[in-house]
Design goal:
With 313 residues, the protein is α/β, with parallel strands linked by helices. Helix content is 33%, strand content 17%. The chain contains eight helices and ten strands. The strands form two sheets. It has an eight-stranded mixed β-sheet with strand order 1-2-3-4-5-6-8-10, with helices on one face. A two-stranded antiparallel ribbon has the order 7-9. A hairpin with a 4-residue loop joins strand 1 and strand 2. The longest helix has 17 residues. The two termini are 29 Å apart.
Amino acid sequence: MTVAPAAVGEARLFRYDAHPRTAGRRQYVYAVLSRRARGISVGLNLNPDAACNFGCVYCQVDRSAPRPPGEVDERRLLEELEATLEEGRDGRLLARAAADGVPVPLRRVADVAFSGDGEPTAYPRWGDLVDDVGEVIDRVLPGTPIVLITNASLFHRPEVAAGLDRLAARGGRVWAKLDAGTESWFSRVNGTRVPFARVLDNIGEEARKRPLVIQSLFLRLAGEAPPPGEIDAWVSRLADLVAGGGRLREVQVTTIARRPADPAAEALSPAELEEIAGRARAALPLVPVEVYGASTTGNGRAGQPHAPDGGAR
């Protein structure tokens, strides 16, 4: 297929420093370049009203203007997913990636991810949609993995636990947020009334059932980096998780790389991230620990020139 360059004045869709979710006429489904997925991730937004039970200081979702509430049109979501995956199958999506300068190894549909503008598992029918989404994938682009990007705050709910079982039955994976080691830093960074103990218990219970990925974002807040004691506490949480029978596929150490809604939140340096990751590697020698900095290559190592990413993807 001959790839034409992007039209003059046309915004790049596939870039690490922004994840546009309104490209074209699609309301719920969007395709982004994800360094952690190592390719094009097809996102599913179950929170178009931007409602979330966390208020993370590094979140790039703009909630300054209220959005009208409304139920998710699941039929439209599945139609948009089918159309997007068809573009991946016939090469149109990959041609656009090439025109945007995406490196050849990343020109692939890497996964379909429940992510979006809020906590996906807060959607009442999330578990049912796991099967519906899986059926679309099987029909259009078989073998594409399903990923849940989550703050793990609702895993204890029976309907969410049932959805996690459905996700696992389809070979799906969970990427769970853990940005702190102490209650105080958790409250400051994640801005939620959910008890830290609840998140830790939920992650531990799920990790004892099947392996999961931990995503941890560290930042400088109002000029202050996480104190050494905070990092030690975070490493201890991970070590306790594994000692308690939890299984981790990977730990992702990240920082801000897309403009957050809160200007007080700033990225850590590659050296600071590597120091944090080094502590985790020392405590968890059998668990892969990858660094994704504000400037990174697609192979998960910080400190190399590449367009940045941020947030959960």
